[in-house]
C-alpha cells in the first residue's frame, strides 16, 4: 500500500510538471537574447526576387579604419559610430531606439527608421529596413 501511494505521488508530481511546461510559452518568434550591446557594421544587401539574400561587405566602412558601429544601451539610447578619412576620424551620432516585438525603430540625428529584426543572437543582429528593404548585418 505504501508503494502504491508513492507511485501515485510521483505520477501526480510528474503530471504537474508536464502541465506546467506545456503552458503557452509562445514568444511570437521573438528572441530572448538581449538587444543591448555594441554591434560592428559587417554586411549590407537586399533580398533578390528569387528570395535569396545578396549581402556584401558594408560600403560605409572606411578602408583601413575600424568598422562603423551601432551601440544600443539599456537606457534606450543609441549611438552610431562612423569612421571617416585617412585619419579615421570618429563621428558619433546619438539618438534613441525602441523595440516592439521584432520591430526596431531607431531615431538617429532626427531621422527615424523602422526595421524588422531578422536575426538576433549573441553574435549577430540582422535587420531589414521596412521602407527600403535594405538588409544590414551587425556582429558583436
In short:
With 140 residues, the protein is mainly β. It contains 1 helix and 9 strands.
Strand content: over 45%
The total of beta strands comes to: 9
Approximate shape: globular
- What is the average of the pLDDT values? 84
Give the helix/strand class: mainly beta
Explain what you see.
By secondary structure, this protein is mainly beta. Helices cover 14% and strands 48% of the residues. It has one helix and nine strands, in the order H-E-E-E-E-E-E-E-E-E. The chain has one helix at 2-21; strands spanning 37-47, 53-57, 69-72, 77-84, 89-100, 103-108, 111-120, 124-129, 135-139. The chain has an eight-stranded antiparallel barrel. Strand 8 and strand 9 (135-139) form a beta hairpin. The longest helix has 20 residues, at 2-21. Mean pLDDT is 84; it is low at 3-27.
List keywords for this structure.
140 residues, mainly beta, eight-stranded antiparallel beta barrel, disordered N terminus
What topology does this entry show?
Layout: H1 2-21, E1 37-47, E2 53-57, E3 69-72, E4 77-84, E5 89-100, E6 103-108, E7 111-120, E8 124-129, E9 135-139
